[in-house]
Amino acid sequence: MDMAVNSQQVADRQAIERIVGSYPPERRYTLAIMQDLQKHFNYLPKEALKMTAVHVKTPLSAVFSMATFYKAFSLVPKGRVILKVCDGTACHIKGSNVMINEIYKTLGIKPGETTPDGEFSLETVNCLGACALAPVLVANEKVYAKITPTALREVINKYRGADQ
């Protein structure tokens, strides 16, 4: 087990070095580096933020400040499947709160939480720009329109245990 953990840590460090090193060492690239790190890891590991700060010659506090300012970034690991429920006006009127409650009943998580097994995370978003399709669910960037509690459970079951 220790060998697997160590090899994963080495692989993670190499990925961080590759991503950070692919940009010139200038402060103006901080946000782009962080976006690539977020895309790769599904969150921003502390070591990645430290390496980014060193690379762009910026205090860690400034990099951390950016990481906490933008909602798109997460400092904690997210699930393999990220469920986003639109809670904009049209979706809210059409029952987004019912979908959020159904996710809680099915997975035991509230917005901003991740299941203990690391499989699912739940987020709410203000608007996905798909008001005519309300209520809308996005699972790992795939849009599900006019979602019902039954359809929601089917989506969750589709992603459970699947290598997506």
UniProtKB/TrEMBL annotation:
Lineage: Bacteria, Bacillati, Bacillota, Clostridia, Thermoanaerobacterales
PROSITE patterns, sorted: COMPLEX1_24K
Family membership noted in the UniProt record: Belongs to the complex I 24 kDa subunit family.
Highest rank taxon of the organism: Bacteria
Alphabetized PANTHER family for the sequence: BIFURCATING [FEFE] HYDROGENASE GAMMA SUBUNIT, NADH-QUINONE OXIDOREDUCTASE, E SUBUNIT
Biological source species: Syntrophaceticus schinkii
UniProt GO MF annotations: 2 iron, 2 sulfur cluster binding; metal ion binding; oxidoreductase activity
The name this protein goes by in its record: NADP-reducing hydrogenase subunit HndA
Binding sites annotated in the UniProt record for [2Fe-2S] cluster: 86, 91, 127, 131
Textual note on the cofactor: Binds 1 [2Fe-2S] cluster.
